[in-house]
Structure formats: structure tokens, C-alpha cells
Amino acid sequence: MKEIRAIIRPNRLSRLREALRAIPNFPGVTVFNVKGFTAPSSVDRRSLRDELTDFTDKVMVCVLAEGDMVETIRAAMIEACQTGQIGDGLVWVVDIQSMHRVRDGSAY
Hints:
Largest sheet: 4 strands, antiparallel
Oligomer: single chain
Number of helices: 3
């Protein structure tokens, strides 16, 4: 089992939702409102807005899926959320050692 996480621009969430729903047997997604900023060393020019604002609103999405779905989900996240601009976000994958359903305690 894997967890695919992404931090994206809030205005891309509806596009991402559509892309994920189009994946056969998509398991579901959890969405968090988060704040963050890009590493200063990766930004060539900072605008006045950047200088006056410490954090930018972002959205974090988390998907728990079987290993054979990871690449499809990762690719859908990137395609739906990419604008080509600094601040588009990140996607990463984490191994899940164990997972249990709260309702009945059964393991996946």
C-alpha cells in the first residue's frame, strides 16, 4: 500500500478531482487546506507580494492506493495541476507499513 501526497494550488483542485474520478477503481482522496512558501533559493525574482506575504494558501491531497495504481494517480495529479510556474506544488509517494479500518479494525 502507498500514500500519494501532493501540495497544489487551490484553484487546481476541481481539475484534480475530475482527473482522479476518471481513474477506474479510484480509492478516494483526503483534502487539507495548508499554507507554505517556496524555498527562497529556488525563486529568481521575488515580487512585492512575495516580500509582504510569508505564506501562500495551498491544498494538500492524500490518496491511499495499491502499488499498481501509484503511477496513474501521480501522473494525473501532475497533469491536472501543472501550470509551469513556480508554486505549482509537489507530488511524493510514501510507503504504508500497515493500515486498519477504524470501523471494524480489519487490516488492508
